[in-house]
Amino acid sequence: MTQQEPVTSRVEDGIAVIRIANPPVNALSAAVRGGLKRAAEAAAADPAVRAIVLAAEGKTFIAGADISEFGKPPVPPSLPETIAIFESLSKPVVAAINGAALGGGLEVALGCHARVAAPSAKLGLPEVTLGILPGAGGTQRLPRLIGAAPALKIMAEGKPISAKEAQANGLVDEVAEDVVAAARALALKLAGGTLPAVPKDRTNLGAREAFEEAAAAILKRNPNNPSVEACADAVRACFDKPFEEGLAVERAHFTRLRDDPRSAALRHVFFAERAAARIPGLPKGTGARPVAKAAVIGAGTMGGGIAMCFANAGIPVTLIETTEENLQRGLERVEGNYATSVKRGSLAEDAKAKRMGLIEGKVGLEAAADADLVVEAVFEEMGLKKEIFGKLQEIAKPGAILATNTSYLDVDEIAASTSRPADVLGMHFFSPANVMKLLEVVRAKETAPDALATAMEIGRKLAKVPVVSGVCYGFIGNRMLARRTAQAERLLLEGALPQDVDKALTDFGFRMGPFAMSDLAGIDVSWRIRKAMNLKTAPVADALAEAGRFGQKTKRGFYDYSADGRTGAPDPEVAALIERISAERGITRRPIPQEEILQRLLFPMINEGARILGEGIAARAGDIDTVWLNGYGWPSWTGGPMFYADSVGLPKIVARLREFAAASGDTNLEPAALLLRLAHEGSSFTALDEKAAA
Ligand code: CAA
Q1: Does the C-beta of 25 come closer than 6 Å to ligand 1?
Q2: Taking a C-beta distance cutoff of 8 angstroms, is the pair 429, 405 a contact?
Q3: Reaction catalysed by this chain (predicted)?
Q4: To the nearest whole number, what is the mean pLDDT of the chain?
């Protein structure tokens, strides 16, 4: 089969319509750049061509540079060169923006003489999310078109704007349903006249003071973000330097950032999140079941948050409780959450009313009868869950998906309590459910392929990042977290204090360390669970809880919150308590270097990740990274635990784990078989994923 040309050109009525067709998203691969250059040169040379329309096939205009080409040797023509050719044509070029014009895609449109966008089009420069800055003239052309301050905002936030907003700020000239027809008409109008290219002087930049003020605010909101800093610097060059020199400033930043390991990690994050959507072993053509209505059982914090996710996505949902009182409390909590968003200005009053209107509260499981998807979110108690699923098998309509939000329990056992285990799976949301992006979709032994496909699809509709996990205690995320928690406690007994442990993680890039997190969540929560299970794994946390130090809610926990209730200060009483427990256990405390603390926290997690991968609980190392990035605040510029492991070097991790295992006698710290194998072969988790994808 001959491959379709990625760029074609057709001349009709004096207009050359150059079309890009490079599915799925018309990324600017070398073949596309080459095709664009040839098409532009041919149109320039053809006397029958009076004007040019640049259009694209499919739903997207152009999604930007081909990210998979980064890190490989460059292939000419470069994107800046291609754009310069269009910009310098003496015939008008109009971009017909049918869908997303992102990154290099928007930069191509900026090199045209005018832009027409479809009402649904999105225009943006998301490069900062990849650790770079716009590198094909965007930092120089956009400010000169719409003003320096608004341009920097678009670059620094990385979020696309709508066609309507783009028209309002002068980025697009027209908004039209039929973009090609409108672009043709505009191109003809421009033919023969003076071409309205982006001005190369300072005419449109706006006041320098306004820009500096905006830049200072943006930099304050994004501390230590090299991409945002580079965007501000490149835009500033619009005031200080001629256009060509500004382009050189941009290029220098672009090359430096592109070659920085942080950008490589962010590119991994981009592809890992998308790969996580692919479910290995699903029969070809497996479709999702339609979900027009949902039900959530349990109106606690978690259930209410899950119901909000459905309402936010426009899906009607029934929130079910056992008593009217519990139901009202749950509904009030949901209403309160929305009211907070309205107060903060992130939600309009009428949107709140619309969302509340989609949530119907009911008492009794029978109310789940008309739902296509039922999410159970009651206490973590196997007996209770089995009872509910047993009843649901009768109540839920045939084909309805029966999901449990359990964090730890065996989904196979829950599924076995119904006569329809093929409909059962886990949908593990993370707290607060209406905010956190991660959704672990737990595939049980008997889960039907289309049920799994449905949960993944609905996850995306709820604006989550869904990742498939097999059944095991704690699934992917919490199973790994347990290793970190155990080490954190041990570090306290060996000589560290809570602030030392937390600092190791916050310096690494986590927003919070494990002890500050415990204080926020409440030390009593896990203490009660440990008591019920007769576990003695966390002597320090247990002693604090027994002393009534539950964390922020009692103003004392691992830290002292008496100052303002929220800011934790190191507490000498806690240090004394820890020292006492160390002494009782005959442990001689020693100063532990921060590097060792970090390795003790992260390497056992990576080791557990390798086990999870080896057992097939996760399909890819990238899936594990996606879980930690979206559910546990792992810093994205290190790529997630498994990508980070590759960057540290697997042999080093193996060696350190062996030392930790020998020093503690904990066989769990012995390197996992998969980790050993990859280290021995000189391979990596990334290479393993690539091999599996090939
Ligand atoms: N390069 C290479 N592949 C890309 C890509 C890109 N810029 N954008 C998307 N893809 C791939 C995805 O990896 C995915 O591949 P698989 O199906 O194999 O997983 C496929 O295209 C579809 O992508 P999505 O699943 O994301 O599709 P969507 O419909 O949900 O979203 C989109 C479409 C809004 C365009 C989204 O893909 C997106 O945001 N893309 C990235 C945009 C971006 O960051 N552009 C800047 C690139 S850097 C740049 O341009 C630098 C410069 O200045 C020159």
Answers
A1: yes
A2: yes
A3: a (3S)-3-hydroxyacyl-CoA + NAD(+) = a 3-oxoacyl-CoA + NADH + H(+)
A4: 96
